[in-house]
## 1
Amino acid sequence: MFATVKLGKKNGELAKKLFEIRSVTLLAKKNYSQQVNVDEFFKFYSDKVYHDDRYKPLNGKDYDRFISMRSARREPAVTRQITSLSYKVGKQMISLAEGMPNENVFPFKRLLLDSSCGDPLELEGKELAAALQYLPSQGLPSLLTELRKFQDDLHRPPQLPRDILVTNGSQHGIYQCVELLVDPGDPVITTEFAYTGIHSTLKPYQPEIIGIPEDEDGLIPETLDSVLGERLRLGLKMPKVLYIIPTGSNPSGTVLPEARRRQIYELSCKYDFLILEDDPYMFLNYTDTQVPSFLSMDTHGRVIRLDSVSKVVSAGLRGAWVTAPIPLLERLELHMQAELLHSCTLSQTILLQVLSSRSSLARHLIGARQFYLKRRDALNSALEPISDLAPYSVPKAGLFFWIRVNGVSDVFNMVFHTALQQGLMLVPGQAFLFDSSSPCQHVRLTFSRVRFEDMETAVRRLADLIRNEQQIKKKMYANDG
Ligand SMILES: Cc1ncc(COP(=O)(O)O)c(C=O)c1O
């Protein structure tokens, strides 16, 4: 399933390992009473096999049409290729080639990182030196092996040549993918309100944003179909990529149900676009349904998946990875060579430690979900009494409430002037629009860090602000009238 980029074809040993199925089973507490099975917890695929013969899977040269002009001009850095080679050749090789520093000048002696998630990480001598040295651009080889297995176990992606690149956070992956796929002026599909980081990355490309509305189950496939059908009929330029957060959309908190994911996947084949699946909230799904990922459905080589441990393990670690068809991943790696050389080696070493005990990780993730769920529920209880002023749907996943403020057509003034004066920080909805100067009725509230005891006060202040803003608007209309 996963072939290494450098080898370009499957390595028998590795492939064998990848198909091993883990039998670790852990019983842990969920909602303080239910029991959770680790294999089920880490299951993001369907047992049912789907294949749509109407469309041909993409391969090799097919990807050329998706690659931006800028990315197509990238060429391999010879010294980076030598670094990769140096990780593969035997010890008998005398190297006068590498530009690596000598580890003996590194001043560090020992690193001990104790953790509630698995064994402590203890590094000394050669191991510590290796964790502080340059790497091949794709990532730490042992981490890549673990990640290939992780993706295979969690998503069981259909067998197509794909591989992984370790990035410096998912935002970095977004940036790389935009550079890979988007030429100035290209159309890009997103949800109507989308994560700020995709917009800020896209801005300099002056794309045409095709913003598809969501309901409480996320992006509406029928609308996407009719919008794209109409574009085709009118002979307009068609988008090469859809950016989507399938679980815990930021800001809307929706979880796309499996049926919608399958419909959207089929549309990607019908209208020939790629799906950029950004899924940092996958472990913060508060519903009882674990939904198969787009990667798990990717029979036709159309999914680029972004994973990140920022929300559940550590944000500052910048632990993230891209899983993509090999022709695309090769381009991303060239970008990495030029941009960063590689993601931080020490972070990758820590990430490897975190991922390598699946049962400890499951226990930690279940705890993290429970932790956030309590906060979601507490903020929900605080917000319920003002739901006539600010209606909302309870977020099904992720970290955000997305509320619509009644009687206030634009919340900008309220958020940036009155709310701040009243000691309340909020995010105005326009932060999630490509054109952030547009008026917007929505506000995003985050429940991840606010103290329980501050929630009711925060909501009381919010309610006062909304009433105040509604009065101002009323007076303005009365004066205009
Ligand atoms: C949807 C989404 N994608 C990506 C990111 C960035 O994640 P990372 O810390 O891995 O760069 C965020 C952070 O808020 C996010 O909400």
Note: DSSP finds 15 helices and 16 strands in the chain.
## 2
Amino acid sequence: MERKQFELWDVVQMKKPHPCGTNEMEIIRMGMDIRIKCVGCQHSVLIPRSKFEKNLKKVLRNTKRQDEVAGDPTNS
Ligand SMILES: [Zn+2]
């Protein structure tokens, strides 16, 4: 298993979707425990890092990091 990398404000996809039907969570707090917020219903949960890593399916784009988009040549 490769180790997944994630950081604060990353939007991640979990293995199990949230009861509201959304499968995207935003990392809003990092520490020994990680607080993630459901993108769909804004519900936030605090889970241990180990459990988070186990349930993490993949890391999606970081929506708050705009500098990568700035150099996009298609926007001319
Ligand atoms: Zn939800």
Note: Residues 49-55 form the longest helix (7 residues).
## 3
Amino acid sequence: MPRIKQKKTDPTNGVKESGFSNRLRSVLWKIPGLTVWRQNSGKMMVRDEETGIKRRFDGAPKGAADITGILAPEGIRVEIEANGKRGKMRPEQIQWAVRIQNAGGLYLYAPMFKDRHANESVSYWKMALEDLIAQRRKGVE
Ligand SMILES: [Mg+2]
């Protein structure tokens, strides 16, 4: 009897943290008044594509969220930490979340759900951010 190989199914469709973060960022652009961009944190070596010269890149402080932005018309800073399926908030990320919130910004921790297609996680966290914005505007949050 030939053994039937059990096909491993990945509900997230193999989407990794960076893919999830990119999808989420592009969807968040649809929220009226919100401008978002990618935020790299920490120090790293980068090579200039045109000159080939290597240089040190000093990114945002350690723990800063993957996605950052600004909400119009209030000018509220918005930070979203996108995490892969096995992701967990690191202590420096928690400190950053507190810092942003204490400064009056909005912070959202958005981990990918391991039992759902990545797009479902994206839709869920977009709604969560819309809710957070609505609460802030109502003066609840
Ligand atoms: Mg992350």
Note: The domain at 17-138 is CATH 3.40.1350.10 (Trna Endonuclease; Chain: A, domain 1).
